[in-house]
Amino acid sequence: MTMMQDVLQDAAIGVGVTQSPEGLKILANPGCAAAIWLRQPLPAFQTWIDELNPDNLPSTRLVLRPQDVVTALSEICDMSLMPQGGHRQRLIEDIAALSHIFCDLMAAPCLRLRLERITSNACRKFHIDAVT
Question: I need a surface site. Which of 72, 74, 95, 124 has the fewest CB within 10 A?
């Protein structure tokens, strides 16, 4: 069985699964409580971020327009002393793209952007059975 089939089989009722950003539109369906977007990072990026000192990861909570994410994150990455380079720029642009996708899906002019350094298994916070 493939990973996709495993996830589909094991997904909770009301959880949609997609392999593309367009598939996130499932969130608009009645009864859809969450969506999982199966993404595979580029191997070089994964190696870079795995080796990055967690102290150099950006950490913030902001309310902003999606078009302001790149500028804000560039400044936050500078403050956290994240090394300059292509992988850093890829991270910033990916977060910005996700911000646009979210605002488009929600028909919202702004979003709450929260980046938090996680050093333990924080997964338990996001389990659907832990949401009231």
Answer: 124
Write the CB contacts of 73 (distance below 8 Å, at least 6 apart in sequence).
58, 92, 95, 96
The three-state secondary structure class of 70 is: helix
- Number of Cβ within 10 Å of residue 6's Cβ equals 10
Confidence band for 30, pLDDT divided at 50, 70 and 90: confident
Quote the tokens at residue 80.
């956290």
How far apart CA 68 and CA 123 sit, in angstroms, is: 29
Indicate yes or no: pTM above 0.85: no
Burial of residue 32, with CB atoms counted within 10 A of its CB: 0-12 exposed, 13-18 middle, 19 or more buried:
middle
Task: Compute, in degrees rounded to 10, the torsion defined by CA atoms 128, 41, 106, 112.
Answer: 80
Summarised one tens digit per residue, pLDDT across range 50-89 is: 999 999 999 999 999 999 999 999 999 999 999 999 999 9
